[in-house]
Design goal:
The complex is a heterodimer. Chain A is of the alpha/beta class. Chain A contains twelve helices and 13 strands. An eight-stranded mixed β-sheet of chain A has the order 2-1-3-4-8-7-13-9, sandwiched between helices. In chain A, strands 10-12-11 form a three-stranded antiparallel β-sheet. In chain B, the strands form five sheets. In chain B, strands 11-10-12-13-15-14-21 form a seven-stranded mixed β-sheet, sandwiched between helices. Classes of the chains: A alpha/beta, B alpha/beta. The interface between A and B is large, with 63 and 75 residues. β2 of chain A pairs parallel with β17 of chain B, so a sheet runs across the interface.
Chain lengths: ~350, ~625
C-alpha cells in the first residue's frame, strides 16, 4: 500500500550509473497492484531502462490516465513529477505539457481501456501530431479496477473469467499506430523483460511519437484458460521478429553479430539501435511491410513482438510548429509581451 | 408616395442591410460603417447572420449615433433590401416614415411596398450588368455601387470612402481603382436620378475621438498575447473560432523571434474540446500560460477536466464566447446563458472564477489579467464574452499597456527556494492563510519538490489519502482560496443616480451600452436608479451592500433563467424578492428600449396606490 513507507536503506555496493544514481533512485512508492500483476514488471522495466540510460530522474514527466496501469507512475521515478489525469485523456495532457517544455522526457502510461476505448481519439491524435513522447499501453484486455469487463483490445472469441465469450472485434493499437504515422512502434510482453527494457530505452531516445503496446496479463481477471491475454497464451503465441540492443555511446559497435543478422538504425540523438533479426526478412524501416506482416501473423493467432517500425528521420510536433528552442514555460514578459509602442500602432490601425 | 412624413434625422438613425450570405456584401457594409466613423460620428454595427456559409439571409445593421449609444436600438429607419427571400419581413420592419432602398431593375408590384414608407429604387443589376461582364465582379461591385448610392442619399463625403478604399487596397492598384469606379457609378446615378439627400443624413462631427473600432474576440486574443499566453489549444465553434484565428494572426506579427524567426508560441487545433482543455491543463501544469476559446457546448464537454483543474489546482484560461443554448440552440445568436454552467462547472463541489468584460477594451484587459489570476490562484479562469461583444466591431477606448507591468506567476517554488534550510514544501500546504499553496514546475530539482498530481483526494503533501478529515481539510482550503479571489478579481463599478433613490439595477457584460442608454430613457420617465456593473464572480462584498442599500434591485441579463440573479441569491444569501429579474433572451442583443420599457413599467406599477387593501 502506498501509505507504507518504503525503506530508504540499500546495499552499499549497489551499482551506480554514469550519473552516480543507483536503481533505487529510479524507484517510486510501493505498488498497490495485485501481487504478480504484469504491470509491476513493466514498472520494473521502466526503472531499468531509465537507469541504464542514465536519465536524470527529475527530467522525466510521467503522465497517465485512469485505471490500474495509470496508477503505476506513482511506483517508479519518485523524484519525477507525475500526473494521474482523467480517464482516456493522458495524450492531451501530455501534449500540452510537451508544448510548454520541449526539454523534458515525456512518459505516457495508459491502459487498453484508457487508450482503446474512452481515449481512442486522444491516442490517435497524439500519434498523428508526432508528439515527442514514449507512449506505453499496459494491455491486459480487461477492466481490472471495475472487476473484469472486457476491453476493446480483447480478442474476438476470448473468454472472460466468468466464461462469457467476447463477440466484438479487437482493436490492435499497434496496427493503428502504424497507420497514423507513429515513428517508433513496438510490441512486447511484460513477461519478457529482456525484450522490453531495451525497447523502452530506445523509445525514450527516439525523437517523435514512440508507441509501445505491452501485453500485460491481469492476474486477477484475465489469466485463465480461454483468454488470449494470459501469461500462458502469450508465451505460446509470442512471435518476436527481433531483439534490440540500444547503443548510446558513439564508440564503434564491438559486439560480433553474424553478417546479415543485424539491422542498425541510427537515431537523431546518435543512439544506435542494433536489431538482431529473428525473422530474417523483417525490415523495421518499412512501415507498409510491417503492417502487412502484422495482419498476416495476427490472422494465424500469433502475437508479433519486437521493434516493428522505426523512422530514424522522424520529426516531432515542435518541428512542425517551428517553436523556439527555449522551452515556452521559461519565457518571460520581456520575450512575450510586445509592449505599449506596438499597442499604439495597433490602436492606430483600428481607427 | 408616403402618407407619413419622412423621418428626418442627422447622425441618429439605423440602417439595415439585408443580404444573401456569401455574396460579398460584408466588406461593403463594413466600409459603410467605417466611413461614417471617419465623419467623426460614432456607429454601432451588428452582424445578424445564420448558421450557414452561402445562400441564407444575413443582415448588417448600423446604428448611427452621434450621442454615442453603442447598444442595439431596435427598429430600422432605412432598409437596404438586397435579399428577395426576406423582402416581406424586411419591408415590414421599417419604421413608419422610413426608407426602403431596393434594386429596381425588375419592376415590383405595388402590393410589395408600404404606403407609409419612402421607396428608393436604384437599378443596381442593370447598372452592374452594363459595366461588368464577369459574374463574380458583377456580384462584388454591385455591393460597392449601392454603397455609392447610399453615399449620395445620406450626403456622405465620397472622399472619405475613397480614402478608406485606398487604405484597404494599398498596393493593389487595380482593385483600388475599380472599387473607386464602382463607388462613383452608384453615387453619380443617385445624384442624377434621385432627390439627394434624403431625410437621414450624415454630417461631420467630432464625437469619435481617439477611440478604436475592434471586435471583442480579436481584443481578447490580443490580451492573451500581452498576457504572456504561449499555448493555445482550441476546437472550432461559433462564435469563438475567431479568437484562436486572431491569436494566430497577432502572434504571427508579434511573437516571432527576430533572429531565428521561430515561434514563441504554440497553437494546436485539438480534435475536440476535451483535447483542447487537456492540452491547456497539461501546459499550465508544466508552467506555461495556456488558454482555450470555446462556447457553451464546448464548456459542457470540458467539464470533467475543469473539475480536475479545480481540485488539482492547475491554472488555465477558458474564453467562453456565449451563444444561445441549450444544445446547438441558436449558434449565431447572442446570449449570456452560461453563467451557472461556468460558475459551477463539473461534478462535486466546484466553483470557478468568471470575468465579465463589457466591450473589446475590457476584453483585452481582462484577458491579459486572467493569466495573472489563473497562476496566482492556481485555478481555471473563465473570460465570459458573448457573440455581441465577440463578433461585432465595437467602438471602445484605445488599448493600453503599462511597460513596467510584470507577470504575476503566483506561488512557484524554485530550486533555490527548495534548497533553503528549513523550507517545507507541501503541494497543498497553506503556509500563509490565503488558501493558496506553493507549486513546483516539473523538472525543477533533482531530489526535492516533485509531487504526484491527481484528481483523487490527497493530504497537504500530495500523498494519496481517503481519510475524511484530510479530504474535508482540503475542501475547506479551496473555499478559503475562493474567498481570497474576491479581492483580486475586477471590482464592480457603481454609478449613482442624480437623485437619491430606493432602487438599483445590476447588469454585466454586453448589456452595458444598452443599460447606459436606458438610464437616460428612464430618467426622462422620472425613474431614477443607482446602477452597479458586476465584472467578476466571486462577487465582491460591495454587491451585497449595494443590494442592502436599496429597497430592491433589478438584475438585467440576457438569459431566461436569471442566472446571475440565481448566483447572487445563492452565493450571498440574498432574499430573492429583493432582486427583480429583467430578462431578454430571444437571441438578439438587448436594447435600451427593452430595458427602459421593462423597468419603467415595473416602476409605474409601484406608483399605483391601491384603492383598498385586501381583507385578511
Amino acid at each position: 500500500m502506498t501509505y507504507i513507507a518504503k525503506p530508504k536503506f540499500h546495499h552499499p555496493g549497489l551499482p551506480k550509473n554514469d550519473l552516480g544514481y543507483t536503481h533505487r533512485d529510479y524507484e517510486g512508492k510501493i505498488s498497490t497492484l495485485c501481487a504478480g500483476c504484469g504491470h509491476d514488471s513493466i514498472t520494473a522495466s521502466i526503472i531499468e531502462a531509465c537507469y541504464e540510460l542514465s536519465i536524470e530522474p527529475h527530467r522525466v514527466a510521467k503522465i497517465s490516465g485512469i485505471g490500474c496501469s495509470s496508477k503505476t507512475p506513482d511506483y517508479f521515478l519518485g523524484n519525477s513529477h507525475g500526473f494521474n489525469s482523467v480517464h482516456g485523456r493522458m495524450p492531451s495532457v501530455l501534449t500540452g505539457a510537451n508544448l510548454a517544455n520541449r526539454d523534458l522526457i515525456y512518459l505516457g502510461v495508459s491502459g487498453d481501456g484508457d487508450s482503446a476505448s474512452i481515449g481512442f481519439g486522444q491516442f490517435a491524435h497524439s500519434i498523428r501530431r508526432g508528439v515527442n513522447m514514449t507512449y506505453i499501453v499496459e494491455n491486459n484486455g480487461v477492466y481490472g479496477l471495475t472487476k473484469g469487463q472486457f476491453s476493446a483490445t480483447a480478442d474476438r472469441g476470448s473468454k472472460s473469467k466468468k466464461g462469457v465469450m467476447n463477440t466484438d472485434n479487437a482493436i490492435d493499437l499497434v496496427a493503428i499506430a502504424l497507420q497514423l504515422g507513429a515513428s517508433f512502434v513496438a510490441r512486447s510482453f511484460s513477461g519478457d523483460k529482456t525484450q522490453l527494457v531495451p525497447l523502452i530505452a530506445a523509445a525514450i531516445r527516439h525523437k517523435g511519437a514512440s508507441f509501445i503496446d505491452v501485453i500485460s496479463p491481469c492476474i486477477a481477471f484475465n489469466n485463465h484458460a480461454g483468454s488470449t491475454k494470459s501469461f500462458d497464451y502469450v508465451r505460446e503465441h509470442n512471435d518476436a521478429v527481433n531483439r534490440l540492443d540500444v547503443i548510446t555511446s558513439r564508440d564503434p559497435i564491438t559486439v560480433d553479430y553474424a553478417p546479415g543478422s543485424v539491422q542498425v538504425v541510427e537515431q537523431h540523438d546518435g543512439t544506435r539501435l542494433a536489431l538482431r533479426k529473428i525473422d530474417a526478412d523483417y525490415d523495421a524501416n518499412d512501415r507498409l511491410a510491417a503492417m502487412t506482416f502484422l495482419q498476416k501473423h495476427a490472422a494465424k493467432g500469433q502475437v508479433v513482438t519486437g521493434l516493428l517500425y522505426v523512422d530514424p528521420d522522424a520529426e516531432d510536433m515542435h518541428t512542425h510548429l517551428d517553436t523556439v528552442e527555449t522551452p515556452l514555460n521559461t519565457l518571460e514578459a520581456k520575450e512575450l509581451c510586445p509592449g505599449s509602442s506596438a499597442l499604439e500602432k495597433i490602436n492606430a490601425s483600428l481607427r | 408616395m408616403s402618407d407619413q412624413s419622412p423621418i428626418s434625422s442627422v447622425n441618429d438613425f439605423v440602417v439595415r442591410f439585408a443580404n444573401v450570405n456569401g455574396s460579398g456584401s460584408a466588406s461593403a457594409n463594413e466600409l459603410f460603417a467605417r466611413s461614417i466613423l471617419r465623419h467623426g460620428v460614432p456607429v454601432s454595427p451588428r452582424n445578424i447572420f445564420p448558421s450557414n456559409i452561402q445562400g441564407l439571409p444575413t443582415w448588417y445593421e448600423v446604428r448611427v449615433t452621434e450621442e454615442g449609444h453603442l447598444g442595439a436600438r431596435g427598429g430600422v429607419d432605412m432598409m437596404v433590401a438586397m435579399n428577395p427571400q426576406t423582402w416581406d419581413k424586411d419591408v415590414g420592419s421599417i419604421e413608419p416614415g422610413g426608407y426602403l432602398f431596393y434594386d429596381s431593375t425588375k419592376p415590383m408590384p405595388t402590393s410589395k411596398f408600404r404606403a407609409d414608407i419612402n421607396v428608393i429604387g436604384v437599378p443596381l443589376t442593370a447598372i452592374t450588368n452594363s459595366t461588368y461582364t464577369d459574374p463574380r465582379q458583377r456580384q462584388l461591385f454591385k455591393n460597392i455601387i449601392y454603397l455609392g448610392a447610399m453615399c449620395a442619399l445620406l450626403e456622405m463625403d465620397p472622399k472619405i470612402v475613397e480614402q478608406l478604399i485606398s487604405e484597404q487596397y494599398k498596393g493593389k492598384e487595380k482593385l483600388l481603382s475599380s472599387n473607386v469606379h464602382a463607388l462613383h457609378l452608384g453615387r453619380d446615378w443617385a445624384l442624377q436620378n434621385l432627390k439627394c439627400p434624403i431625410g437621414l443624413q450624415v454630417k461631420k462631427a467630432d464625437k469619435v475621438g481617439d477611440r478604436i473600432f475592434m471586435e471583442g474576440n480579436s481584443a481578447a486574443a490580443l490580451g492573451a498575447v500581452y498576457g504572456g499566453a504561449t499555448v493555445c489549444a482550441w476546437y472550432p465553434i461559433t462564435p469563438s473560432s475567431s479568437v484562436a484565428e486572431a491569436f494566430t494572426s497577432h502572434c504571427k506579427k508579434l511573437r516571432h523571434d527576430p533572429e531565428t524567426g521561430k515561434a514563441k508560441y504554440a497553437i494546436v487545433q485539438g480534435e475536440d474540446e476535451l483535447a483542447s482543455i487537456g492540452m491547456v491543463i497539461g501546459a499550465s501544469w508544466n508552467g506555461a500560460r495556456a488558454f482555450t476559446a470555446t462556447s457553451g457546448p464546448g464548456v459542457s464537454l470540458m467539464t470533467e477536466f475543469i473539475g480536475l483543474s479545480y481540485f488539482a489546482e492547475i491554472p488555465g484560461v477558458i474564453m467562453n464566447i456565449q451563444r444561445a443554448g441549450p444544445s446547438t440552440g441558436m449558434p449565431t445568436r447572442t446570449q449570456q446563458c452560461d453563467i451557472i454552467a461556468c460558475a459551477y462547472a463539473s461534478h462535486g463541489d466546484t466553483k470557478h472564477i468568471l470575468l465579465f468584460p463589457e466591450d473589446p477594451a475590457e476584453a483585452f484587459e481582462f484577458a491579459a489579467q486572467s493569466f495573472d489570476l489563473a497562476e496566482r490562484l492556481q485555478t481555471m479562469i473563465f473570460l465570459m464574452l458573448d457573440l455581441d461583444i465577440g463578433m461585432n466591431h465595437r467602438l471602445c477606448r484605445p488599448l493600453k499597456w503599462d511597460d513596467a507591468r510584470q507577470y504575476d506567476r503566483g506561488k512557484v517554488m524554485t530550486a533555490e527556494m527548495l534548497d533553503e534550510p528549513g523550507r517545507d514544501f507541501g503541494r497543498y500546504l497553506d503556509v500563509d492563510g490565503d488558501g493558496i499553496p506553493y507549486r513546483t514546475y516539473p523538472g525543477t530539482h533533482p531530489t526535492k519538490g516533485s509531487f504526484f498530481t491527481r484528481g483523487t483526494s490527497r493530504d497537504r503533501y500530495a500523498r494519496y489519502s481517503e481519510e475524511g478529515a484530510v479530504y474535508a481539510d482540503n475542501m475547506q482550503r479551496l473555499m478559503r482560496k475562493f474567498e481570497t479571489a474576491q479581492d483580486m478579481v475586477p471590482r464592480p463599478l457603481q454609478a449613482n443616480a442624480a437623485k437619491p433613490t430606493k432602487y438599483g439595477v445590476i447588469y454585466f457584460g454586453s448589456t452595458a451600452p444598452a443599460m447606459d442608454e436606458a438610464i437616460g430613457l428612464l430618467e426622462a420617465r422620472g425613474h431614477h436608479l443607482d446602477r452597479m456593473r458586476i465584472r467578476a464572480f466571486p462577487f465582491h462584498s460591495s454587491v451585497a451592500s449595494f443590494i442592502a442599500d436599496h429597497d430592491f434591485v433589478y438584475v438585467v441579463e440576457q438569459n431566461r433563467d436569471a442566472q446571475l440573479r440565481q448566483l447572487i441569491v445563492n452565493e450571498n444569501g440574498i432574499d430573492p424578492v429583493r432582486l427583480v429579474p429583467i430578462l431578454h433572451y430571444d437571441g438578439t442583443p438587448i436594447t435600451a428600449r427593452f430595458i427602459a420599457s421593462a423597468i419603467g413599467d415595473h416602476q409605474d406599477h409601484l406608483k399605483v396606490t391601491p384603492l383598498r387593501k385586501a381583507v385578511s
